[in-house]
Amino acid sequence: MNIWIVLLIIAVVIAIVFAVLYFVGNKMQKKQEEQRAQLDEMAQTVSMLVIDKKRMKMTDAGFPKMIIDNIPKRAKMAKVPIVKVKIGPKITPLLCDEAIFDDVPVKTEVKAVISGIYITKIKNLRNVAPPEPEKKGIRAKLAKKSAQYLRK
């Protein structure tokens, strides 16, 4: 009899935990949707030259002091995707959406949708500098020469 009471209490506690997680999850999802709608509302398309991209702490990225003061302490320590871009004559660090960070080309002019200091989409790409040729080692050079010799 005691074992059934213990199992019933454990089942009730688990049900309460799941209910709390469900409601908290819904609340966080609604909040995220509101933030996404606000980002989309403020979005503008800008042509920019991507200079560099890295994952680094917000404090090391070179943002103005006013922006860093408004960031929660936990977010200051986390590494976030930062893209350094040149918009007009000004070089600016911008935050990048995690989903498109790997697609952002370096040393290339792109049209991107930005909302404040946040890059949300990349529209089109245009190369400014040609890609650097691959550096070959001695072994690759010798293999190429031997292949040319064998063809003759």
Q: What does the model show?
A:
The protein is of the alpha+beta class. It is built from 4 helices and 5 strands. The model has no long low-confidence stretch (mean pLDDT 85).
Radius of gyration: 26 Å
* Total strands: 5
Low-confidence stretches: none
General form: extended
* Content-based structural category: alpha+beta
**Ends distance:** 92 Å
Organism: Anaerostipes butyraticus
Keywords: Membrane, Transmembrane, Transmembrane helix
Protein name: Type II secretion system protein G
Transmembrane segments: 6-25
Topology readout:
Blueprint: H1 2-42, E1 44-57, H2 65-69, H3 73-77, E2 79-87, E3 90-96, E4 108-115, E5 118-127, H4 138-151
Protein name: Type II secretion system protein G
Keywords: Membrane, Transmembrane, Transmembrane helix
Q: What key attributes describe this structure?
A:
single chain; 152 residues; alpha+beta; 5 strands
Q: In short, what is this structure?
A:
The protein is α+β, with helices and mostly antiparallel strands and about 150 residues long. The protein has helices at about 1-40, 65-70, 75, 140-150; strands at about 45-55, 80-85, 90-95, 110-115, 120-125.
